[in-house]
Design brief:
Helix content: 25-40%
Order of helices and strands: HHHHEEHEEE
Number of domains: 1
Number of helices: 5
Mean pLDDT: 88
Number of strands: 5
Distance between the termini: 96 Å
Shape: elongated
């Protein structure tokens, strides 16, 4: 290079171009990002954690209630499908309910000395209505499946021996005994009108004095009232749904009824 006789400025002497890695605050167009100098103190982190905990404490109960409502609605849907199956059966059998006390006995009739005082489990119904209602899942209340009741013998029965997919988690109080002759408060082989008339005559304290089929409970979730002293301690107050139960009435409507005896 030719000497020009003009001295080089000091700020240009002994310098070399900086590589992108050497530019701490280089522009993104050079292929690097700005390094943040922002940090969190311990107190700030603790505040953030506390806020997250508060939000979680508010959201988790709401999520639990939403899940419970979903299970309750799904259960009501099951009951309505069971009602349709019963109606199809009645239309095919001169409007008479099935009389399958033999099947109920074969599946394991075992009235309890605690609660329930008889055996309202519905394994027999799932077997009898299998042609009208092909899905086994309809007989399994989702509330029972999500609770300790799923392991309670009083609450769940198999419609087919040794087949865990045939679990039935609904009770039918009006088909809870195998006595011969048929008890006045049982519906085996009766029409709906005969069943209501006999139930009134039986003066069953649990069923009361129904005025019409809309007052008669046909299918219900398992429940174990905390006010009954014979209920096993591990089941006291438990039910398929919080503080109440779903039930299908004889006239075909399904509803959730609150019960202060349940948790």
């Amino acid at each position: 290079m030719m000497e020009t006789g003009v001295p080089m400025p000091k700020h240009l002497r002994n310098t070399k171009p900086e590589s992108p890695a050497e530019r701490p605050d280089s522009d993104p167009e050079f292929g690097t990002s700005f390094q943040s100098s922002i940090g969190f103190t311990l107190i700030e982190l603790l505040v953030v954690i506390a806020i997250i905990a508060i939000v979680a404490s508010l959201l988790l109960p709401a999520l639990a209630r939403a899940k419970e409502r979903t299970r309750r609605v799904a259960c009501l849907s099951n009951l309505r499908q069971i009602d349709l199956a019963f109606r199809m059966y009645l239309s095919e059998h001169r409007d008479r309910f099935p009389d399958r006390r033999d099947l109920k006995a074969a599946l394991g009739y075992r009235p309890w000395t605690t609660w329930p005082p008889s055996d309202p489990r519905g394994g027999w119904a799932a077997a009898v209505l299998s042609n009208q209602l092909g899905s086994d899942a309809v007989w399994m209340c989702p509330g029972v499946a999500a609770s300790p009741l799923r392991n309670a013998t009083q609450a769940v029965q198999l419609a087919r021996a040794s087949d865990r997919t045939s679990r039935v988690a609904y009770w039918l109080w009006r088909f809870d005994r195998t006595n011969d002759p048929v008890e006045m408060d049982n519906f085996w082989g009766k029409t709906a009108d005969e069943a209501v008339a006999d139930l009134r005559a039986a003066n069953n304290p649990q069923a009361g004095q129904p005025e019409s089929p809309s007052d008669v409970e046909l299918v219900v979730d398992p429940y174990f009232p905390k006010t009954i002293p014979t209920v096993p301690p591990e089941l006291t107050g438990l039910a398929a749904h919080s503080r109440g139960r779903n039930r299908l009435m004889l006239d075909g409507h399904a509803e959730f009824v609150r019960d202060a005896r349940l948790k």
